[in-house]
Amino acid sequence: MRNIYTYQLLVMTFALALWGGGRLKQRSIAFGLQAKYHALQVQELLDTNLPDPNWEENWYTGKSSLSPTEIADFLRSRDNKIKHHTSMHYKYKHAESWPWLWVSADPPPPG
Length: 111
What we know:
Layout: H1 2-47, H2 55-61, H3 68-97
Helix pairs in contact: 1-3
C-alpha cells in the first residue's frame, strides 16, 4: 500500500513540474515578444526624420515654418520616447531570461 502512495506522489510531482515548466516557457515567450516590440519601437523612432530635415538652412533664409523651439520640442519628445522604449526593452529581456520572477507594471508612456 505504501508503494502505491509513493508512486502517486512521484507522478503528481512530475506532472506539476511539467505544468510549471510549460507555464514558465509561455511567460518567457511572451516577455520575449514584448522585448522585440519595444526594440522595434526604438528603431522606428531612431529612423524618424525631423519634420523639416533642412530646417536650419530654411530658418536662416526665412523659408522654414518651424522655429528652433518647435524642433527642440520634437527632439526632446522623441528622446523621451526612445528612453522609455529602451528601458522597457531591457526590462522584458531580463524577464525573458528569468520568467519566474515578478515583473512590475509598465510606467505610462511619455506624452
